[in-house]
Design brief:
The protein has 500 residues and is of the alpha/beta class. The protein is built from 15 helices and 20 strands. Strands 1, 2, 9, 10, 11, 12 and 20 form a seven-stranded mixed beta sheet that branches. Strands 7-6-15-16-17-14-18 form a seven-stranded mixed beta sheet. It has a two-stranded antiparallel sheet with strand order 3-4. The structure holds flavin-adenine dinucleotide.
Amino acid sequence: MPPHTLFDAIIIGSGIGGLVTATQLAAKGAKVLVLERYLIPGGSAGYFERQGYRFDVGASMIFGMGQKGTTNLLTRALDAVNVSQPSIIDPVQIHYHLPNELDLKVDRNYDKFLQNLIAYFPHEEKGIRRFYNECQQVFNCLNKIDLLSLEEPRYLMRVFLQHPLACLGLAKYLPQNVGDIARRYIKDPQLLKFIDIECYCWSVVPADMTPMINAGMVFSDRHYGGVNYPKGGVGQIAQKLVEGLEKAGGEIYYQARVTKIITENGQAVGVQLANGKVFHGKRIVSNATRWDTFEKLLPAETIPDNENNWQQRYQKSPSFLSLHMGVEASVLPAGTECHHILLEDWENMAASAGTIFVSIPTLLDPDLAPAGYHIIHAFTPHWIDDWQKLSPSKYEAKKEQVAGEIIDRLEKIFPGLDAGLDYLEVGTPRTHRRFLGRVDGTYGPIPRRKLQGLLGMPFNRTAIPGLYCVGDSTFPGQGLNAVAFSGFACAHRIATDLGL
Ligand SMILES: Cc1cc2nc3c(=O)[nH]c(=O)nc-3n(C[C@H](O)[C@H](O)[C@H](O)COP(=O)(O)OP(=O)(O)OC[C@H]3O[C@@H](n4cnc5c(N)ncnc54)[C@H](O)[C@@H]3O)c2cc1C
């Protein structure tokens, strides 16, 4: 690279949000540079390898890899830079193991899922159908339109003229939360608890605080494009996006930690790395969290008012405690599903270590583990405060103790798990903070109190001219397909600003 190169866009971070922004811009002919602090791309959608196992660091229930409609944003992002990623159909989104013997599978087939649920709550059949059908209405509106920047008035006008009813539908649901709609149709308190965990397992807040737009996506797309596991592991998505980025003329540097966003006359014009190197760009995009961006990469004392206001509305969600296990295949009973949720007491749903999430990706792609073994990734919310100020020996002892408790609980669904363990690595909130570069290891922003649906989530532009944010602390929030949406929107807005 010649000295003093001026990039059209510099993207800080190669999470899926950052990579979709970068590839979209590169595909439009922009000169793009991605700077990633870690060794590989992907962030929370990355991977690591140990003793013949390839573990996903986080995400493993992947939406957006379907072949139809407009909401298959991961497929579209890969297509845009002429790469593709084969995926494997997951026939059941989640197998829930819930209090009061509520043992339920969310089948890919919508009618089968409804039948499974109605079998537990026959007196609520009408309410169940009306609630989930309303979620489908939201999805049908989304799935009609090209999902781009809501900050671009000409695009909004064009979409409105093409699909006025879909747009009005979305405008109606934008300020609404799931809980209010669920209670319109459903009275049974146990069933309302089930709707809570249906939301919590991806939004990490109960239905009352979960935006209806996001629920419309998740509760419907699982039966439409479906949940599909990328062959070779989730890390492949980022690897392929990087391949496409480079084919399209973009560049990415690893071990390139940005420590400062450089501003001139209040405008973002470049970045500085930990090693002192400086890069200049017409536009700067941060894929770091908003807290990291505005409190660490810019002077914390000059945080813009609207960011302070945002922090009054949203707080950091907890991080996770993750157990990455290699187990003998005999541990898994025949017919075991890939994704599970275990909760023994409704009161503990949102508590630290309350709900346990489980992924067994080798049931879909056996090549991720040595022959005769499976991967079990079990994770549960944990706060970083419980892991601070521990001596190295106390830290290790706590990891062992907490992992033992999780394994004991998982024995209920996988008897013989402890005896069948071949490999175990425990990640704490400190691990998430260190390797994912996320403040306190947080999963992302969650409302501090009940808000008006998604209305409070910021789009990509920021109060600092030339600086944009992308990823899970922008509209519409967490999840790979959601951050891909944010990437499409960010690139669209920048391309418009640059006249590309
Ligand atoms: C345990 C766990 C399970 C999950 N399960 C699912 C799931 O099943 N399905 C799903 O869809 N989603 C899931 N998610 C959520 C999903 O992984 C995230 O919402 C999404 O990956 C976030 O993407 P992002 O682009 O916003 O940022 P990130 O993935 O956080 O990536 C940001 C990147 O920026 C880099 N970076 C940060 N600061 C700097 C800096 N200063 N300089 C250079 N680089 C920097 C980081 O290293 C990182 O690579 C899960 C998350 C976790 C943690």
